[in-house]
């Protein structure tokens, strides 16, 4: 159990819908998707041609600065003494330029050095005037979820008062080629989470940051809480280098940790934002994990995967989907599983949200992520508590 409450006071995001969390909010609840023909690089050699590519013209460091600045501005906090945690694999496009354009130019070397995860987080923090501890997390698709979990640990244990925390992954030819070669991407250009005819994932631009604060710190500066990061859990089943454990036990273990830390019973979860990559193996394994966590009630818990709208944002997935969890709590709406049509009977009975659904009584959101190597992570976001100073008015 946490010893101090961890509250969300701001967020910012860049997705295929554009820069700014407002773009994500509008498109998400309108049931749109962001998939377009890729123009950032040539795709003639690849089976897949689409991704949730944004029109953002700057590099990944600049995107992180823009999104973190949006979160800080919304929060109203002073970032000077905050910590900064970032989940990322680095600016892969910059590293690709380094290797392809030659190793003997000073500009290429500087570009490559700036793209290393540890250097990225230092650069972003320095640009924003953040002087606290700075850490980069590189554990694939749970990188930013892990960063958020560690931020929760730092604040709940009293080691930090404010953490600016997020993740980043802009569409790069390197990862696009790797996923295409592994036949993981949908050749038909549609990401259909939990659907009978799903045939793969699609990638997307994703950068997102949240400002997390201790309740005491937020109260002292009279800030406003948007939500509470009430629980988190991480597990590793090491089942396979890239396939999920079909039993779902590892992901279920992470989800149970998050619920236990939050003091929330499974029946109190009002919405699950699933990892839901739209690949046959992942969705089936995740369905089994849900049955392990929720038992006979698994078919009654509203569920969607927002990757059907944003694409898979890799290292940024946990942060992007945490922002979506906060939006669900503050907007009192459940985002739809865009692209889903006919349910897959092998996934079992699920309450899939296929159209935006009103949720006026939504109190708890469970967000799930998984990564190659058998790593699993879960976050439990709770409706923001009423500030004590407002309750006294």
Indicate the proportion of strand residues: 15-25%
Q: Tally the helices.
A: 13
Q: What is the molecular shape? A: globular
- Counted beta strands: 16
Structural class: alpha/beta
Distance between the termini: 30 Å
Radius of gyration: 20 Å
Helix content: 25-40%
- The secondary-structure element order is EEHEEHEHHHEHEHEHEHEHEHHEEEEEH
Quick one: biggest sheet? Answer: 12 strands, mixed
Overall pLDDT:
94
Write the SSE topology.
Layout lengths: L5 E10 L2 E2 L1 H9 L6 E2 L12 E2 L8 H16 L7 E5 L4 H10 L4 H9 L2 H12 L5 E4 L5 H14 L5 E8 L3 H9 L24 E9 H6 L6 E10 L12 H14 L8 E3 L6 H15 L7 E3 L2 H4 L6 H15 L1 E2 L16 E2 L4 E2 L5 E8 L3 E9 L4 H4 L2
Parallel strand pairs: 5-6, 5-7, 10-11, 10-15, 11-13
Antiparallel strand pairs: 1-2, 1-8, 1-9, 3-4, 7-8, 9-16, 12-14, 15-16
What characteristics describe this protein?
globular, alpha/beta, 393 residues, 35% helix, twelve-stranded mixed beta sheet, 21% strand, two-stranded antiparallel ribbon, 13 helices
3D architecture notes:
The structure is a single chain. This protein has 393 residues and is of the alpha/beta class. It is built from 13 helices and 16 strands. α6 packs across α12 (317-331) and α9 crosses α10. The longest helix has 16 residues, at 60-75. The chain is globular, with a radius of gyration of 20 Å. The mean pLDDT is 94.
């Amino acid at each position: 159990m946490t010893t101090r409450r961890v509250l969300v006071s701001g967020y910012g995001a860049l997705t295929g819908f554009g820069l700014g969390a407002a773009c994500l909010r509008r498109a998400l609840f309108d049931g749109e998707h962001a998939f377009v023909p890729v123009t950032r690089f040539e795709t003639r050699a690849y089976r897949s041609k689409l991704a949730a590519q944004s029109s953002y013209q700057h590099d990944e460091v600049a995107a992180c600065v823009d999104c973190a600045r949006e979160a800080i501005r919304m929060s109203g906090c002073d970032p000077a003494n905050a910590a900064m945690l970032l989940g990322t694999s680095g600016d892969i496009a910059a590293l690709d330029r380094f290797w392809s354009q030659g190793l003997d130019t000073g500009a290429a070397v500087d570009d490559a050095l700036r793209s290393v995860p540890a250097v990225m987080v230092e650069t972003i923090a320095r640009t924003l005037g953040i002087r606290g501890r700075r850490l980069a997390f590189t554990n694939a698709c749970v990188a930013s979820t892990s960063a958020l979990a560690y931020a929760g640990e730092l604040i709940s244990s009293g080691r930090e008062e404010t953490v600016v925390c997020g993740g980043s992954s802009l569409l790069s030819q390197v990862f696009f080629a790797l996923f295409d070669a592994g036949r993981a991407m949908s050749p038909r250009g549609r990401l259909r989470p939990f659907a009978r005819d799903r045939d793969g994932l699609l990638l997307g631009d994703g950068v997102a940051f949240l400002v997390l604060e201790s309740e005491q710190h937020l109260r002292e500066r009279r800030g406003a809480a948007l939500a509470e990061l009430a629980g988190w859990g991480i597990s590793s089943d090491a089942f396979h280098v890239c396939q999920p454990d079909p039993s779902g036990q590892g992901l279920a273990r992470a989800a149970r940790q998050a619920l236990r830390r939050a003091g929330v019973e499974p029946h109190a979860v009002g919405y699950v934002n699933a990892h839901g990559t739209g690949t046959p193996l992942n969705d089936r394994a995740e369905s089994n994990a849900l049955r392990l966590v929720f038992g006979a009630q698994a078919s009654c818990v509203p569920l969607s995967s927002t990757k059907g709208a944003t694409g898979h944002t890799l290292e940024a997935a946990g942060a992007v989907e945490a922002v979506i969890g906060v939006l669900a709590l503050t907007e009192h709406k459940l985002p739809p599983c865009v692209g889903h049509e006919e349910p897959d009977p092998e996934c079992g009975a699920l309450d899939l949200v296929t159209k935006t659904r009103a949720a006026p009584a939504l109190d708890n959101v469970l967000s799930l992520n998984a990564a190659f190597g058998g790593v699993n992570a879960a976050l439990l976001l709770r409706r923001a508590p009423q500030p004590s100073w407002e309750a006294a008015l």
